[in-house]
Amino acid sequence: MSLPDAVIFDLATRVLQAQDQAHTIAKLTDEHPQMSIADAYRVQDELRRRWMARGERMVGLKAGLTSKAKMQQMGVNVPSFGILSNAMARPENSAIAIDELVHPRVEAEIAFVLDKPLAGKGLTIDQVIDATAYVIPAVEVIDSRYEKFKFDLVSVTADNGSSSRYVTGGRPRDPRELDLRTVGVVIEKNGEIMATGASAAVVNHPANAILMLLDHLADRDEVLPAGSFIMTGGITEAIAVARGDSIVARFQDMGSVSFRFA
Ligand code: OOG
Ligand code: MG
Question: What is the pTM (predicted TM-score) of this model?
């Protein structure tokens, strides 16, 4: 049984307020243990409607919990997808206001920008590459609205996969010129190396995260239009940050992404 529309609406209000005002809320499943993954995506749909109603533009989608490091860190073993709005984007080398966030963490991810639409199930990595204009280094700032950053798959999905900010940078690359399984990544905080990884950590190839996203979208009769920006998920575990921290994520052959928290 899915939750009534009025409950979904109320949960979206609760999540949106927590996101906008940077405060925590109890896991939604504490109050609604019967809530399903489909209900959680209905909350996301309602968030999207409200973002668009206040003038935000949807720029793309993200896949999260796509690497073992992330799954182990969060105790969830199924990917969660989320929506990216232009209001979450921050420029490279900027200062991200930490007062607008609860307990942020950073993740290094490979992002894809499509120049052809993608839709349907059973596509291949080559078809994803063929539809890709370029790949670009990205750092996602995730910020769960749940207490102690603890959640289950349903609750995190309703919180739009903990999305809060993202920064792209470095060098856009043609994916045909790289081996996207073996891109090495180093995350530094204040000059100290905090995590290292290789892009195959994301479901063997980051394009596989897009195939999983397409599967999910096909079930909802949705597609990835040309121009979509897609983040494929943290390659390593996420790193907690505080005011004053400087972040540099270095991507082999793709350049680096730098910013700080103020
Ligand atoms: C959920 C979001 C995970 C990723 O890249 O794995 C995510 C979370 O860990 O809070 O964005
Ligand atoms: Mg992420």
Answer: 0.97
Candidate from 68, 74, 199 with most ligand 1 atoms within 8 A of CB, to mutate: 74
Instruction: Give the CATH number for residue 85.
Output: 3.90.850.10
Q: In what order do the strands lie in the sheet with 246-251?
A: 95-96, 255-261, 246-251, 184-189, 192-198
Sign of CA dihedral 155, 160, 163, 164: negative
Number of domain units in the chain: 1
pLDDT tens digits, one per residue of 37-94: 999 999 999 999 999 999 999 999 999 999 999 999 999 999 999 999 999 999 999 9
Q: Which domain holds residue 256?
A: 5-261
Q: Please tell me the distance from the alpha carbon of residue 185 to that of residue 257, in angstroms, as a whole number.
A: 11
**Mean of the per-residue pLDDT values of the chain:** 98
Q: Is the CB of 107 under 6 A from ligand 1?
A: yes
